[in-house]
Amino acid sequence: MLALSSSTRYFKYSYRPESPMGKAVAYAHKRWTGLSAYVLHGQMEIENNLVENAVRPFAVGLKAYLFAGSHDASEMTAAMYSFMASCKKNKVNEFEWLRDVFERIHRHKRKDLYQLLPSNWEEYRLK
């Protein structure tokens, strides 16, 4: 690792900073501590599958937003993705939550809408 680290310092001055290779070397050199941490700390994972799995619905949604029909529709779609992600995070069944919210939302006062959020739903569901 030490040899590779010194190589990035050497290469940093071997390429023009604005060239693609110069940018790549500068990127690696600037982030060397973070990039090499997994070698120094055996408990760290090399892959980031957990993060990739968490953001996949949003990445898939990016194309859907292009064809949502309007800016307002794409904002509503993004809100629904957010609600579904919140349900998943709080271990709430998305279908049950959505059905219950649609049935009860018209009876709620504006100040009490927080009760219908996925994070609060189980607590206020039967009240």
UniProtKB/TrEMBL annotation:
- Transposase IS66 central domain location is 15-74
Organism encoding this protein: Anditalea andensis
Domain Transposase IS66 C-terminal positions? 82-118
Task: State the protein's name.
Answer: Uncharacterized protein
The protein's matches in Pfam families, at most eight in alphabetical order, are given as: DDE_Tnp_IS66, DDE_Tnp_IS66_C
